[in-house]
Amino acid sequence: MITVIGSLNMDLVTTSPRYPKLGETVLGSDFQTIFGGKGANQAVAANRVGASVQMIGRVGEDAFGKDYLKYLSDKGISIGSVEPVTHSPTGVASITVADHDNAIIVVPGANFDVTPSVIESYEERIANSEWLLLQMEIPMESIDKAIEMAYQHGTKVVLNPAPFQPIPASWWEKITYVTPNEHEADLLVRDEQFEERFLEKLIITLGEKGVCFYQDGNKKTIAAPSVTPVDTTGAGDTFNGALVSSLDRGLSLQESCLFAVHAATLSILKFGAQTGMPTKEEVEDFLLKGGV
User: Fold this and answer.
1) The three-state (H, E, C) secondary structure of the chain, written as one string
2) pLDDT value at position 105?
3) Hey, how many other C-beta atoms are within 10 angstroms of the C-beta on 118?
Protein backbone atom coordinates (compact mmCIF):
# COMPACT_ATOMS: atom_id res chain seq x y z
CA MET A 1 0.00 0.00 0.00
CA ILE A 2 1.19 3.49 -0.92
CA THR A 3 -0.06 6.48 1.05
CA VAL A 4 0.10 9.90 -0.57
CA ILE A 5 -0.26 12.95 1.66
CA GLY A 6 -0.61 16.18 -0.25
CA SER A 7 -2.57 18.70 -2.22
CA LEU A 8 -5.74 18.45 -4.27
CA ASN A 9 -6.24 21.38 -6.62
CA MET A 10 -8.56 22.18 -9.46
CA ASP A 11 -6.38 23.23 -12.38
CA LEU A 12 -7.72 26.14 -14.43
CA VAL A 13 -5.75 25.72 -17.64
CA THR A 14 -5.46 28.36 -20.35
CA THR A 15 -3.68 27.58 -23.61
CA SER A 16 -2.12 30.51 -25.43
CA PRO A 17 0.10 30.94 -28.51
CA ARG A 18 2.56 32.82 -26.28
CA TYR A 19 2.92 34.25 -22.79
CA PRO A 20 1.60 37.80 -22.35
CA LYS A 21 4.04 40.52 -21.38
CA LEU A 22 3.45 42.39 -18.12
CA GLY A 23 0.27 44.45 -18.50
CA GLU A 24 -0.59 42.87 -21.86
CA THR A 25 -3.72 40.93 -22.81
CA VAL A 26 -3.54 38.17 -25.42
CA LEU A 27 -6.24 35.90 -26.84
CA GLY A 28 -5.99 32.31 -25.64
CA SER A 29 -6.92 29.34 -27.78
CA ASP A 30 -8.46 27.02 -25.16
CA PHE A 31 -9.56 26.75 -21.52
CA GLN A 32 -10.14 23.63 -19.44
CA THR A 33 -10.89 22.77 -15.82
CA ILE A 34 -8.80 19.74 -14.84
CA PHE A 35 -8.22 17.80 -11.61
CA GLY A 36 -4.73 18.54 -10.27
CA GLY A 37 -2.57 19.29 -7.23
CA LYS A 38 0.79 17.59 -6.79
CA GLY A 39 -0.47 15.20 -4.13
CA ALA A 40 -3.49 13.98 -6.08
CA ASN A 41 -1.50 13.96 -9.33
CA GLN A 42 1.05 11.59 -7.81
CA ALA A 43 -1.66 9.42 -6.27
CA VAL A 44 -3.38 9.07 -9.66
CA ALA A 45 -0.05 8.38 -11.39
CA ALA A 46 0.75 5.56 -8.95
CA ASN A 47 -2.77 4.19 -9.27
CA ARG A 48 -2.63 4.26 -13.08
CA VAL A 49 0.43 2.01 -13.11
CA GLY A 50 -1.19 -0.51 -10.80
CA ALA A 51 -0.43 0.52 -7.21
CA SER A 52 -2.90 0.33 -4.35
CA VAL A 53 -3.13 3.95 -3.20
CA GLN A 54 -4.76 5.85 -0.37
CA MET A 55 -4.86 9.65 -0.29
CA ILE A 56 -4.71 11.92 2.74
CA GLY A 57 -5.76 15.52 2.12
CA ARG A 58 -8.46 18.15 2.32
CA VAL A 59 -10.89 19.81 -0.11
CA GLY A 60 -13.52 22.51 0.35
CA GLU A 61 -17.26 21.92 0.67
CA ASP A 62 -17.74 23.37 -2.78
CA ALA A 63 -18.45 22.06 -6.27
CA PHE A 64 -14.75 21.52 -6.98
CA GLY A 65 -14.33 19.47 -3.80
CA LYS A 66 -17.39 17.30 -4.38
CA ASP A 67 -16.39 16.63 -7.97
CA TYR A 68 -12.86 15.74 -6.88
CA LEU A 69 -13.95 13.20 -4.27
CA LYS A 70 -16.18 11.43 -6.77
CA TYR A 71 -13.44 11.48 -9.38
CA LEU A 72 -10.82 9.89 -7.09
CA SER A 73 -13.29 7.31 -5.83
CA ASP A 74 -14.18 6.36 -9.38
CA LYS A 75 -10.45 5.92 -10.09
CA GLY A 76 -10.20 3.38 -7.28
CA ILE A 77 -8.15 5.56 -4.93
CA SER A 78 -9.08 5.30 -1.24
CA ILE A 79 -10.49 8.68 -0.14
CA GLY A 80 -11.51 7.84 3.42
CA SER A 81 -8.87 10.33 4.59
CA VAL A 82 -9.81 13.14 2.19
CA GLU A 83 -12.37 15.23 4.05
CA PRO A 84 -14.15 18.45 3.05
CA VAL A 85 -13.74 21.54 5.25
CA THR A 86 -16.29 24.34 5.51
CA HIS A 87 -13.99 27.32 6.09
CA SER A 88 -11.66 26.98 3.09
CA PRO A 89 -12.25 26.51 -0.64
CA THR A 90 -10.73 23.68 -2.63
CA GLY A 91 -7.22 24.62 -3.77
CA VAL A 92 -6.83 25.95 -7.30
CA ALA A 93 -3.94 26.27 -9.74
CA SER A 94 -4.03 28.81 -12.53
CA ILE A 95 -1.95 27.37 -15.37
CA THR A 96 -0.90 28.99 -18.63
CA VAL A 97 0.40 26.66 -21.34
CA ALA A 98 2.46 28.29 -24.11
CA ASP A 99 5.65 27.66 -26.09
CA HIS A 100 5.59 23.94 -25.13
CA ASP A 101 5.94 24.82 -21.44
CA ASN A 102 3.81 26.07 -18.55
CA ALA A 103 3.60 28.74 -15.82
CA ILE A 104 1.59 28.08 -12.66
CA ILE A 105 0.14 30.07 -9.73
CA VAL A 106 -1.26 27.97 -6.87
CA VAL A 107 -3.79 29.14 -4.25
CA PRO A 108 -3.63 26.43 -1.52
CA GLY A 109 -7.07 26.85 0.07
CA ALA A 110 -8.11 23.69 1.94
CA ASN A 111 -4.69 22.11 1.40
CA PHE A 112 -3.36 24.18 4.28
CA ASP A 113 -5.94 22.55 6.53
CA VAL A 114 -3.81 19.40 6.43
CA THR A 115 -2.39 20.22 9.85
CA PRO A 116 -0.10 18.16 12.10
CA SER A 117 -3.14 17.09 14.15
CA VAL A 118 -4.77 15.83 10.95
CA ILE A 119 -1.63 13.80 10.19
CA GLU A 120 -1.66 12.38 13.72
CA SER A 121 -5.25 11.20 13.27
CA TYR A 122 -4.12 8.95 10.42
CA GLU A 123 -1.18 7.33 12.20
CA GLU A 124 -2.52 3.81 11.69
CA ARG A 125 -2.88 4.35 7.93
CA ILE A 126 0.72 5.59 7.70
CA ALA A 127 2.00 2.75 9.88
CA ASN A 128 0.32 0.14 7.66
CA SER A 129 1.81 1.55 4.45
CA GLU A 130 4.96 0.33 2.72
CA TRP A 131 5.66 3.74 1.18
CA LEU A 132 4.70 7.32 2.00
CA LEU A 133 4.87 9.87 -0.83
CA LEU A 134 5.04 13.58 0.04
CA GLN A 135 5.36 16.95 -1.70
CA MET A 136 5.47 20.53 -0.40
CA GLU A 137 2.02 21.96 -1.11
CA ILE A 138 0.87 21.38 2.48
CA PRO A 139 2.31 23.04 5.63
CA MET A 140 5.94 22.19 6.44
CA GLU A 141 5.08 21.27 10.02
CA SER A 142 2.62 18.68 8.69
CA ILE A 143 5.27 17.19 6.41
CA ASP A 144 7.59 17.04 9.42
CA LYS A 145 4.96 15.19 11.44
CA ALA A 146 4.32 12.72 8.59
CA ILE A 147 8.04 11.98 8.13
CA GLU A 148 8.57 11.45 11.85
CA MET A 149 5.54 9.17 12.10
CA ALA A 150 6.61 7.13 9.08
CA TYR A 151 10.13 6.81 10.47
CA GLN A 152 8.83 5.52 13.79
CA HIS A 153 6.78 2.84 12.06
CA GLY A 154 9.34 1.79 9.45
CA THR A 155 7.39 3.19 6.50
CA LYS A 156 9.69 4.24 3.66
CA VAL A 157 9.43 7.89 2.58
CA VAL A 158 9.84 9.58 -0.80
CA LEU A 159 9.80 13.39 -0.72
CA ASN A 160 9.32 15.45 -3.86
CA PRO A 161 10.66 18.89 -2.73
CA ALA A 162 8.30 21.01 -4.84
CA PRO A 163 7.40 23.81 -4.66
CA PHE A 164 10.90 24.12 -3.25
CA GLN A 165 11.66 24.86 0.38
CA PRO A 166 14.90 24.01 2.20
CA ILE A 167 14.82 20.58 3.84
CA PRO A 168 15.48 20.61 7.59
CA ALA A 169 18.60 18.70 8.58
CA SER A 170 16.57 16.37 10.80
CA TRP A 171 14.65 15.01 7.81
CA TRP A 172 17.55 13.54 5.86
CA GLU A 173 18.13 10.52 8.09
CA LYS A 174 14.42 9.63 8.00
CA ILE A 175 13.77 9.97 4.27
CA THR A 176 14.45 7.11 1.87
CA TYR A 177 14.64 9.18 -1.33
CA VAL A 178 14.31 12.84 -2.32
CA THR A 179 13.28 13.60 -5.93
CA PRO A 180 14.29 17.16 -6.90
CA ASN A 181 14.65 18.58 -10.39
CA GLU A 182 18.04 20.01 -11.39
CA HIS A 183 17.40 23.45 -9.93
CA GLU A 184 16.05 22.06 -6.66
CA ALA A 185 18.96 19.61 -6.39
CA ASP A 186 21.45 22.44 -6.78
CA LEU A 187 19.78 24.33 -3.93
CA LEU A 188 19.75 21.23 -1.74
CA VAL A 189 23.42 20.33 -2.14
CA ARG A 190 24.50 23.95 -1.62
CA ASP A 191 22.75 24.01 1.76
CA GLU A 192 25.35 24.00 4.53
CA GLN A 193 23.36 21.28 6.31
CA PHE A 194 23.64 18.88 3.37
CA GLU A 195 26.15 16.04 3.81
CA GLU A 196 27.81 14.18 0.94
CA ARG A 197 26.49 10.86 2.25
CA PHE A 198 22.98 12.04 1.44
CA LEU A 199 23.78 12.05 -2.30
CA GLU A 200 22.56 8.46 -2.52
CA LYS A 201 19.14 9.61 -1.35
CA LEU A 202 18.81 11.94 -4.35
CA ILE A 203 16.93 10.97 -7.51
CA ILE A 204 17.27 14.02 -9.77
CA THR A 205 14.87 14.54 -12.66
CA LEU A 206 16.53 16.16 -15.68
CA GLY A 207 13.53 16.97 -17.88
CA GLU A 208 14.08 15.88 -21.47
CA LYS A 209 17.49 14.46 -20.45
CA GLY A 210 15.99 11.85 -18.12
CA VAL A 211 17.07 11.20 -14.52
CA CYS A 212 20.23 10.64 -12.51
CA PHE A 213 20.90 9.01 -9.16
CA TYR A 214 23.84 7.79 -7.10
CA GLN A 215 24.79 4.23 -6.10
CA ASP A 216 27.96 3.11 -4.35
CA GLY A 217 29.49 6.53 -4.91
CA ASN A 218 28.82 6.50 -8.65
CA LYS A 219 26.49 8.76 -10.57
CA LYS A 220 24.15 6.94 -12.93
CA THR A 221 22.01 8.53 -15.64
CA ILE A 222 19.00 7.13 -17.48
CA ALA A 223 18.17 8.99 -20.67
CA ALA A 224 14.60 9.88 -21.58
CA PRO A 225 13.19 8.93 -24.99
CA SER A 226 13.17 11.82 -27.46
CA VAL A 227 9.62 13.05 -28.17
CA THR A 228 7.84 16.26 -29.13
CA PRO A 229 5.88 17.35 -26.04
CA VAL A 230 2.23 18.39 -26.15
CA ASP A 231 1.98 19.49 -22.50
CA THR A 232 4.66 19.07 -19.82
CA THR A 233 2.24 19.73 -16.93
CA GLY A 234 2.36 16.81 -14.50
CA ALA A 235 5.44 15.09 -15.93
CA GLY A 236 7.29 15.30 -12.62
CA ASP A 237 4.24 14.05 -10.74
CA THR A 238 3.92 11.13 -13.17
CA PHE A 239 7.58 10.31 -12.54
CA ASN A 240 7.12 10.31 -8.77
CA GLY A 241 3.98 8.21 -8.78
CA ALA A 242 5.47 5.70 -11.20
CA LEU A 243 8.74 5.59 -9.26
CA VAL A 244 7.13 4.76 -5.92
CA SER A 245 4.76 2.27 -7.55
CA SER A 246 7.75 0.47 -9.08
CA LEU A 247 9.68 0.46 -5.81
CA ASP A 248 6.57 -0.88 -4.08
CA ARG A 249 6.46 -3.74 -6.62
CA GLY A 250 10.01 -4.68 -5.60
CA LEU A 251 11.88 -3.33 -8.63
CA SER A 252 15.45 -2.11 -8.11
CA LEU A 253 16.19 1.60 -8.00
CA GLN A 254 17.56 1.52 -11.55
CA GLU A 255 14.58 -0.43 -12.86
CA SER A 256 12.19 1.90 -11.06
CA CYS A 257 13.86 5.00 -12.49
CA LEU A 258 13.78 3.51 -15.99
CA PHE A 259 10.07 2.75 -15.69
CA ALA A 260 9.32 6.19 -14.23
CA VAL A 261 11.25 8.06 -16.95
CA HIS A 262 9.26 6.28 -19.65
CA ALA A 263 5.99 6.94 -17.81
CA ALA A 264 6.83 10.64 -17.56
CA THR A 265 7.75 10.76 -21.24
CA LEU A 266 4.41 9.26 -22.24
CA SER A 267 2.59 11.74 -20.01
CA ILE A 268 3.79 14.77 -21.97
CA LEU A 269 2.30 13.44 -25.21
CA LYS A 270 -1.22 14.30 -24.01
CA PHE A 271 -2.84 17.45 -22.64
CA GLY A 272 -3.36 17.82 -18.87
CA ALA A 273 -1.57 16.50 -15.79
CA GLN A 274 -3.70 13.51 -14.80
CA THR A 275 -5.35 12.94 -18.19
CA GLY A 276 -1.94 12.28 -19.73
CA MET A 277 -0.80 9.72 -17.17
CA PRO A 278 -0.19 6.29 -18.71
CA THR A 279 -1.20 2.84 -17.52
CA LYS A 280 1.29 0.16 -16.50
CA GLU A 281 0.62 -1.69 -19.76
CA GLU A 282 1.26 1.43 -21.83
CA VAL A 283 4.60 2.05 -20.12
CA GLU A 284 5.68 -1.56 -20.48
CA ASP A 285 4.78 -1.51 -24.17
CA PHE A 286 6.71 1.76 -24.60
CA LEU A 287 9.74 0.15 -22.94
CA LEU A 288 9.52 -2.91 -25.17
CA LYS A 289 9.50 -0.66 -28.23
CA GLY A 290 12.58 1.16 -27.02
CA GLY A 291 10.76 4.39 -26.19
CA VAL A 292 9.34 5.02 -29.66
Assistant:
1) CEEEECCCEEEEEEECCCCCCCCCCCCCCEEEEEEECHHHHHHHHHHHCCCCEEEEEEEECCHHHHHHHHHHHHHCCEEEEEEEECCCCCEEEEEEEECCEEEEEEECHHHHHCCHHHHHHCHHHHHCCCEEEECCCCCHHHHHHHHHHHHHHCCEEEECCCCCCCCCHHHCCCCCEECCEHHHHHHHHHCCCCCHHHHHHEEEECHHHCEEEEECCEEEEECCCCCCCCCCCCHHHHHHHHHHHHHHCCCCHHHHHHHHHHHHHHHCCCCCCCCCCCCHHHHHHHHHCCCC
2) 86
3) 21
pLDDT in tens, 249-266: 999 999 999 999 999 999
pTM for this entry: 0.91
pLDDT in tens, 205-236: 999 999 999 998 899 999 999 999 988 878 99
Residue 292 has pLDDT above 80, yes or no: no
Q: Is the pLDDT of residue 291 over 80?
A: no
- Cα distance between residue 286 and residue 122, in whole Å: 37
> Which of the residues 67, 237, 248, 285 is marked catalytic?
237
Check: CB of residue 283 under 8 Å from CB of residue 259: yes
- Specify whether 144 is catalytic: no
Residue 48: pLDDT over 90: yes
Under 8 Å between Cβ of 243 and 203: yes
- Taking 90 as the threshold, does the pLDDT of residue 106 lie above it? no
